[in-house]
Queue: 2 jobs
Job 1
Amino acid sequence: MELREADEGDIAGIRGVARRSWETDYPDILSRETIAETVEEWYTPDRLAFDIGSDDAHVLVASVDGSVIGFAHAVGESGTGTLLRLYVDPDHRGAGVGTRLLSATCDRLAGVGCTDVEAMVLAENGPGNAFYRGFGFEPEREGETTIGDETHDEVVYALTL
């Protein structure tokens, strides 16, 4: 497995991992239509190209034989960094891909002066919550997020770097 900064050639792979992850992780939480619409809205090629090219964004991919199997997207330059997204293709879970992506992302954030990192997870996403807790993140507060036309509870986790 290779872990590296994303480039524009990874956009289709990132979109595919996001779609497969949402379809696997959220069918009991979100409707199929909401999943499809949200993935299309949040992971447009233009938005991903902007994020990949942004100076304050850190977009990493994990790949095998040139195919993207996971990605992480964080922002931050100092103070508290924010992990916006971290997904691993369902066929590659349980092999340490997510842990390596998270560790590398935290290292990147620390390298640009971040002292803490936050990550948000839907409260109903048991595996996502367990993943962050397993890495040492602590629940900091609860909040809400809107996906489609629905409001969902989320947990904001924090980790001191």
Job 2
Amino acid sequence: MSVQVLYTAEATAVGGREGQIKSSDGVLEAKLALPKQLGGPGGAATNPEQLFAAGYAACFESAVRFVAREQKVALTQTAVTAKVGVGPRSAGGFGLTVALSVSLPGVDRAVAEGLIKFAHENICPYSHATRGNVDVSIALA
């Protein structure tokens, strides 16, 4: 499948999980630290899983809003929380899990579930990228 690229994000990491990251435009710049749960110091620094969670949450919320506009469903307030887990895989190496919690207050449950399903299956590029590679669960909050 080909993609017509409309935007390309670029960032550089130096020092791996205990280094720093910076986007090519300088807007994003952060120190990285290995979380305590993975044997690191933790502290006031981010990590790749937090960055992935933030990106997936923002992208998925936008996908849900897009589907709602297309289907003429009024949304008052929406929120998506993404939890990204990392750990050893039974096949070796490390893998990720994702749990998305979607809040669509004031929207009929069946309608909300339909919006979420359509956004996940057809719109969100993070959902497309993870499909078949990462266990993703989605719950309506």
